[in-house]
Design a protein that fits this description.
CATH superfamily of the largest domain: ATPase, nucleotide binding domain
CATH class of the largest domain: Alpha Beta
Radius of gyration: 26 Å
Largest sheet: 11 strands, mixed
Helix content: 25-40%
Number of helices: 22
Number of domains: 4
Strand content: 15-25%
Structural class: alpha/beta
Oligomer: single chain
Number of strands: 27
Distance between the termini: 27 Å
CATH topology of the largest domain: Nucleotidyltransferase, domain 5
CATH architecture of the largest domain: 2-Layer Sandwich
């Protein structure tokens, strides 16, 4: 595969002394721009694309380095005399602002019917197209909005019919939908907002933030908390149940652009706002794409400032007193992380990342530049967009790699791309195991030095290929940047094909139980349970199991199996984290905090045939099935499971970090997608910190596969600096 000529990276020696990633991040409007659009005396009054040198679109409109106006999609809009004076006035906030514009010289916003028919704007408003779009939302319409990074679909979040129509448009049955409200007071009517969460919502990155739902009154209305200015009780409408089905959280954001601020000015209720893409497809960036793919949309609010680079909204959550990025995207990407001590002489490296939740990474000079997240690279559209994004990053940062770092597994798309790239450019190649990369990324984010002692790495993740050919995902590793050794694991059990297991959690529940006891034992001891009757209906009276072609030690698979046993998510799930999120949402917090610890579900730690210790869930399953017989409330059982699992992880850490009653490892690094479960991570961190371990976790990078590229780059750099043997101009692999 040969890169198109226009995407060939510039020579590394031609790069400026320092290119900062933050100059390319798309950010929310600054206070000055927000005041300007609402000031009737300003010439930018109600101009929906107002920005300055301190805010506005950057990466989404940039085509080349440096990020000046002539290298963005704004180059076609000549500045009017007034804007030109501001643009060339040093020391002012509009000085050389790449997206500077006004009513006279900038892109124009238009509201159109999806069917193309003409309509009278004054029937919706006496102001402008953006205000008319607000009326569309208030009347229950579905609106496509051209936002930063691509089109969004929006509707009134309080209308069940509108939310149902939007879900049909997205072809998304259950994934929680993001919400946007005009201010913090509006959000607080529906969700609890701590001081930390308020700071995060108001940050220049303007991420989507996961918040705890407010209680609902018996009459069905959310209780009102506080007295926001202009709030009337009759404006308070309960959110549609379909916004976040089965969850006790809501994903809220504040307006991310001046267009959003104007749109929500007189909107007293939150709106649903979600990327305009269907499952597995790319986000639309052109209004013609909306017409083609989203017939359910009523109106399109668009403008002629072209979106060059697709990018989604960032997703964050406060977990254990820290703001943690769960999806690395707009506002946070491109991210520049300083290299830890000892990597000052590292070569320029390109790391291609994982296949799911992919980000790639550029290592050069004194920093790691981590891209925004892409979709599943198995999807052809996503893979093509990944290649385009990668080439653009190479251009923007004038990065000419001297080495490639890829996943050790040769089969997936990112790894294939890296190997082909290395072969074309005659570059050396380092293969890095997926789980080693997780821990290396965690170390790098926490600036752990290259010569630091090996740490105990804990990877709590979905199934991914391990070093022995099975699927790992609940691993305890002795690791530094150069090497990684598996010390312990969760119990390996059979699993069916990944796609089927992902769609039907009861498959994994069934195979987990059959790994602990045979079918006859299950029937004799627990035959009265509805769960056992469910298995009989789906496998036959002779218990024909789904064909388990692989084994997995995945922590996520165990959690999904428990969700299936509790009948929270059993038959089918429609997005990757659905079962685990529902299990977390089910937890009874009074049980979690106040119940006698002895009632937490127990796990044992025996040895495998190769003398490796493992977390054995037999006792947990016996306790859980016993509670099902006793008809124990599901929220109590979910709490007992989380407490028991956290206890088992901490016990394993203690076992591996001590020798002859002496602590020989003091630093623990934790990574993996299960770390996005707030309850599990807080329980584990609380216990480890109480025991005075030094615990390293992710905050700026997600704990899922999006951090893997950074870890690949760090492992490749460490091995190169240690003078690992490499044949000149030949592709070599060093797989841990």
């Amino acid at each position: 595969m040969t890169m198109p000529a226009r995407h060939q990276p510039a020579a590394y020696n031609d790069a400026p002394d320092r290119i900062t990633a933050t100059q390319y991040t798309d950010t929310a409007p600054c206070p000055h721009c927000r005041r300007e659009i609402f000031d009737p005396t300003s010439r930018r009054y109600r101009y929906p694309l107002t920005s300055c040198a301190n805010c506005g679109p950057r990466y989404s409109i940039s085509r080349a380095q440096p990020g000046t106006r002539e290298h963005t999609t704004m180059q076609t809009f000549a500045l009017c005399p007034a804007c030109d004076r501001e643009f060339n006035r040093p020391g002012q906030r509009c000085f050389h602002a790449p997206a500077l514009a006004c009513h006279d010289c900038g892109p124009q916003v238009r509201l159109e019917r999806h069917d193309g028919k003409t309509f009278c704007l004054t029937s919706l408003t006496q102001l402008d197209a953006v205000d008319a779009a607000c009326t569309v939302l208030q009347n229950g319409g579905i609106l496509a909005i051209q936002g930063i990074g691509g089109f969004e679909l929006a509707c009134d979040a309080s209308r069940e019919d509108s939310v149902a129509r939007l879900r049909r448009a997205k072809q998304s049955a259950a994934r929680p939908l993001a919400l946007m409200a005009r201010d913090i007071d509006s959000i607080q009517r529906y969700a609890r907002v701590s001081e930390q969460e308020a700071v995060l919502l108001n940050s220049r990155e303007a991420p989507v933030v996961i918040l705890q739902k407010r209680a609902v009154t018996p009459a069905g209305r959310q209780r009102s908390f506080g007295t926001a200015k202009g709030f009337r009780h009759q404006d308070m409408q309960p959110l549609a149940q379909a916004v976040a089905p089965g969850l006790n959280t809501l994903a809220f954001m504040l307006p991310a652009s001046t267009l959003h601020h104007l749109l929500l000015k007189r909107m007293n209720r939150p709106i649903v706002i979600t990327s305009a893409n269907r499952s597995g497809a790319l986000r639309c960036v052109d209004h013609d794409e909306i017409r083609e793919h989203f017939g359910e949309v009523d109106y399109i609010l668009w403008h002629d400032q072209h979106v060059l680079n697709r990018i989604d909204e960032s997703l964050c959550r406060i977990i254990h007193r820290r703001a943690r990025v769960l999806r690395h995207a707009r506002g946070h990407a491109p991210a520049a992380l300083p290299l830890p001590p000892g990597f000052e002489k590292a070569p320029a490296i390109l790391a291609t990342g994982a296949e799911q939740n992919n980000s790639f990474c550029l290592l050069a000079a004194d920093r790691l530049i981590v891209s925004h997240q892409h979709g599943d690279l198995q999807q052809p559209e996503q893979y093509a967009n990944y290649q385009l994004s990668l080439c653009r990053y190479l251009e923007l940062f004038h990065h000419r790699p001297e080495r490639l770092a890829v996943d050790a597994l040769t089969g997936h798309a990112g790894s294939r791309f890296g190997r082909q790239f290395a072969q074309q450019q005659s570059l050396p190649l380092t293969g890095v195991s997926y789980h080693h990369a997780h821990i290396a990324a965690c170390l790098a984010e926490n600036r752990y030095p290259r010569d630091g002692e090996a740490v105990l790495g804990v990877v709590l993740d979905a199934p991914h290929a391990g070093d022995d050919g099975s699927l790992w995902g609940g691993e305890f590793l002795l690791a530094d940047y150069q090497q990684c050794t598996r010390l312990a694991t969760f119990k390996p059990v059979g699993t069916v094909d990944a796609d089927d297991a992902h769609r039907l959690p009861w498959h994994d529940c069934y195979t987990q139980l059959l790994a602990e006891m045979n079918w006859a034992q299950l029937k004799i001891n627990y035959g009265e349970l509805e769960l056992i009757r469910f298995f009989e209906q789906h496998t036959g009276a002779t218990a024909r199991a789904p064909k388990a072609t692989l084994t997995t030690s995945s922590c996520s698979r165990l959690m999904e199996a428990v969700a299936a046993a509790l009948d929270i998510c059993r038959d089918e799930i429609s997005y990757p984290q659905q079962a685990m999120q529902a299990l977390e949402a089910m937890v009874d917090h009074d049980t979690l905090e106040n119940e006698d610890p002895i009632l937490a579900y127990p796990f044992a730690i025996p040895l495998l045939h190769n003398s490796m210790p493992y977390i054995e869930p037999l006792a947990m399953w016996q306790a859980l099935l016993g509670d099902l017989i006793l008809d124990t409330p599901r929220p109590v059982m979910a709490a007992r499971f989380h407490k028991g699992l956290a206890n088992a992880i901490v016990r394993m850490v203690d076992k591996l970090c001590h020798r002859d009653d002496q602590r020989v490892i003091n630093t623990v690094a934790i990574s993996g997608s299960a770390c996005h479960n707030r309850i599990l991570l807080e329980l584990v961190l609380g216990q480890l910190e109480h025991k005075h371990y030094r615990v390293l976790t992710h905050a700026r990078l997600p704990a899922n596969g999006a951090c893997v590229a950074a870890g690949q780059a760090m492992v490749a750099a460490a091995q190169q600096l240690a003078e690992a043997p490499v044949a000149n101009h030949q592709t070599t692999e060093e797989v841990m």
